[in-house]
DUF3367 domain-containing protein
Amino acid sequence: MRERVALYGLAAAICVAVLAPLAAPGYVLAFDMVFVPRQPLRWDLVAPADVLPRSVPLDAVVSLVTQVVPGWLVQRFALVAVLAVAAVGAGRLVPADRLPIRLGAALGYAWTPYLAERLLIGHWALLLGYAALPWLVQAVLRLRAGRPGALARVVLAAAPAVLTPTGGLIAFGVTAALVPGRGVPRRPAILAVLAVAALNLPWLVASVTTTAGGSSDPLGVPAFAARAENWSGVLGALAGTGGIWNAQTTPGSRASGLVPVATLALLALAVAGYPVLRRRWAGVAAGRYANGDDAPDVGVGGGVAGRFAGIAAVGFLLASAGALPVLRDGLAWLVVAVPGAGLLRDGQKFLMPYALFLVLCAALGAQRLAGRLAAVPAAAGAVLLGFLLLPVATLPDLGYGVAGRLRPVHYPADWDIVAARVAEQPGPVLSLPLSAYRNYPWNPGSVVLDPLPRYLPAEVVVDDTLVVGDLAVAGENSRAGGIRRLVGSGAPVARSGVRWVVVQRDAAGPVAGETLAGLHVVYSGPELTLYANPQFGLDDTSPARADRSVWTWRRWLAAGAGTLALGITLAALVALGIRAVSRLGRHPTPW
């Protein structure tokens, strides 16, 4: 009980320390983190017709939730969940004997460069998968031991991860690699792998049904490659769970020359702690089971530590592929030749298993070192205290919204007015100036993915060309590409087949007059101008215009995949609920 109170108390303290600026009202809009008051539920969010399903099923889930819960509250809940679930999960998973080690693992996993950088770039849904990973590994250990309810726990732990394709791949890889084994109950093992695979169906089906090209621009490989953050180079940054491609989303403390020293210390502790993890997960050494229960079953984790080390190594290799000359050319060929391989361009995302493995092993290494120094209590205490404080000492600027960079703002009144006008006559909308990201005066110091597609109750065409430094990485949306060529030729966008055009005031600058020729101003405000296209439905020359009659059955197929995934998740939740009730009634069940 004491350990549980301390662990949950630490998780609460981490949430307060990191998310304090979010006590103010408004929305945090940073790069890919876009929340709106009430995100409409549209077919193009469930089954995108012209773009790759990078936000499937995430957008559909957010749309459903915001029908009953305001977007600002959903954002707060999601960010608190990332930090709290990550901390508690790591603290419960580490098979340590001492409370400071469990607390150190909790803080070490919830206070990492990986989390800070992905938080700044707005990948909150990916971080839900990061937070769920310790719980997934713990559920797998339970399943291998034949514990009741383990299958349902595996499904529920994997569910947050599959909100994004990357998280879904990692969850499936971890499950498929760790579940099989000698002596493991066969039927639950097979069902667990199949269930996690089925949870990935929404984005897999959407990938097959979209008209967007499956290949990606090879320029994205160097653009999204991991980067050095200090004198230790790219591999040193990755070894410390940092190295994100976007320099704007790297905390300033990562440039410190002492960071590589701290990374080397963690690696040394991890080397010392790996044998302990291997023994304890194998159930050979005396100690506690991974979930905090009493003595483990013999053979519960035999070989699991080695397999998890392999998963971490594969993740590290994928993270470094774009930055290593030996692997870069192969990855560039892969993203062009293999549909969907563009998912691998931002390889640093796949550091997730490595980050957990590093924290677990380093925690046990610190415990082992403190045990060796038990004869000198002051020295042993210094080791435990140093391990506990090391994450904050090396990354102090994760606190207070990553040094104040995550702060709420309010959408101008123009946005609600334009949304209401579009809702009166729904139809395709074009967002101008052509740019994937926006730098608004009312959101100073922060770049954000264009919020219009999530704010308006209609399909919005946004240019998906991404400019990274001097590189312009082409997107996969053929319709947006056609409009870009149309604008580049000096032709009016009235010929693009859209019903509405919204011109936004941002750092991208003004829109040329010839681009807007033939359009009628419907609303003009300080931040947004809405134009109606009188040629809508009369002159549609867009080469990427999809035949919506063909899309009907494909969209229902995508909806069916989402329904199946939701049904599996709800079934797991019900199974655990029934088991909990039966335990209260002291009537064990076979689940």
User: Anything to note?
Assistant: The chain has two domains: 2-404, 413-532.
